[in-house]
Write a structure and sequence with these properties.
Number of helices: 10
Shape: globular
Number of strands: 12
Largest sheet: 10 strands, mixed
Helix content: 40-55%
Oligomer: single chain
């Protein structure tokens, strides 16, 4: 199993170089074609002297500015991607999340950077993970390489976690160390059994993994602390084992991981 088509998402308000170089490195590692994408949208309401209103002329100016920025990103992508890699480009003036989700049908893996607060100019990673139908690699801030030498698999016996492990096999297969860990809140023996089953599954794919039980409450901060303690440079997890509404209302592992910009995160739903 490998990734043969990789999307790298470039945010319109972020410097593109690090993200493009990351996409190049992954495309070279897996022998994949690289698709560069960028999008931003014009907000339907704009501020005027009289308050908030629809203003066609101002919206057209904003659209022109977006198109100019997209052209700049395309030029940088095409400048950096070497001829040895099959590269493609796509851009649109529309919701970045929607554009990326629709474009995901052409790829095995989506690579993106950190989210921002402006949904018209940055991807909503939670919505992307839920809607794309493809794994999403969220790169740590300003990284140009995801070596995935030590990978933490955040295990929970859910459909999403099983999907994430299967989707992450190309990374797991090349890692020097794979640790499958779960937070044991109930001290239930079945938790150990499920960890053992995952280790056997990975062994059948030629991947040697050790298992760990993390005692305590199930929260993302505890998981991130454990990841740092083993020097993991990639966390693999399912996205939204609970409903997204509950996650964002009360907190949750997925929400914490999305906000955790110091480490690379791989999510599937």
């Amino acid at each position: 199993m490998s990734y043969k088509s990789i999307i790298v998402n470039l945010a319109v308000d972020a410097p593109p170089t690090a993200m493009v170089k990351l996409g190049i490195e992954l495309a070279e590692r897996f022998g994949a074609r690289l698709i560069g994408l960028a999008a931003a949208d014009v907000p339907p309401l704009v501020a005027t002297g009289d308050g908030m209103a629809y203003e066609g002329e101002i919206m057209q100016i904003q659209r022109t500015e977006i198109e100019k920025r997209l052209a700049e990103l395309r030029a940088e992508f095409e400048r950096l991607v070497p001829a040895s890699i099959s590269g493609e480009w796509g851009q649109a003036v529309c919701s970045p999340t929607r554009f990326l989700s629709v474009s995901a049908r052409a790829a095995d893996l989506i690579v993106t950077g950190e989210a921002g607060d402006n949904v018209f100019r940055t991807v909503d990673i939670g919505s992307l993970a839920l809607g794309a139908g493809r794994p999403v690699l969220i790169a740590a801030s300003n990284v140009e390489h995801v070596m995935a030498k030590t990978v933490l698999v955040a295990w929970k016996d859910t459909r999403e976690a099983r999907r994430a492990i299967a989707d992450a096999l190309p990374f797991l297969a090349t890692a020097k160390e794979v640790v499958v860990a779960t937070i044991d809140t109930d001290r239930d023996e079945s938790v150990r059994d499920s960890l053992a089953d995952v280790a056997v599954f990975l062994e059948h794919h030629g991947i040697k993994a050790r298992t760990e039980l993390i005692v305590g409450e199930a929260d993302g901060d505890r998981l991130l602390t454990f990841a740092r303690s083993i020097h993991a440079d990639l966390i693999v997890s399912g996205a939204y084992g609970h409903s997204r509404l509950r996650e964002w209302a009360f907190g949750g592992v997925t929400r914490t991981l999305i906000d955790g910009s110091s480490i690379n995160r791989f999510m599937s739903y």
